[in-house]
Amino acid sequence: MALVEADISMSVDGFATGPDLDAFPGLGKGGEQLHAWLDEREGARLSEATFAASGAFVTSRRVFDDTGGWAGHAKFWEEPAYAGYYGMPVFVVTHRAHEPVRTRATTFTFITAGVAETLKAAAAAAGDKRVHIMGGASLVQQSLRTGLVERLRLHIAPVLLGSGTALFDGAPGPDLHHLDTVDTPGATHVTYRVGRLSPPGGR
Question: How far is the C-alpha of 183 from the C-alpha of 124, rounded, in Å?
Fold first, then answer.
């Protein structure tokens, strides 16, 4: 059975995007700093290892729409080594039905049955590899509450954004157990094992 892992970058003060998303769609004002670690050698190596271990991806409709299905990211579509998200299926959580979209070796499947059903479909497609949940913040929150996520990886960039999209919304979440920490110049990468869900109102 596929291991389900949520993976997201955040600021030291807990934001997954910068402010002013209307004026700066996608990552918000200053939000690109959260992903600067991907452009560094050590960070790129970590990212490559994640792709190699993964067999399916889950993302939100907003991320899909904001990136145009990553159409603007040349490395995913133009470089042969990537073959469009490495040829892995991408499952999109959405409230709006949409026919599957195929771009090179990648098929985007849109699922309207909710986050839990999307994770199950991705796990079936991933086989013995990982399911990689890649945001945004709301999808990570919802995924953790399904009880299906086994690992959480936070890439904490050394930046204080002050405001933006909070990664966590203050509602109860699962227990977290530290597994690993890796430091690179652009971020501190912390991996947790996800335990049981905390009951409403506390533990």
Answer: 33
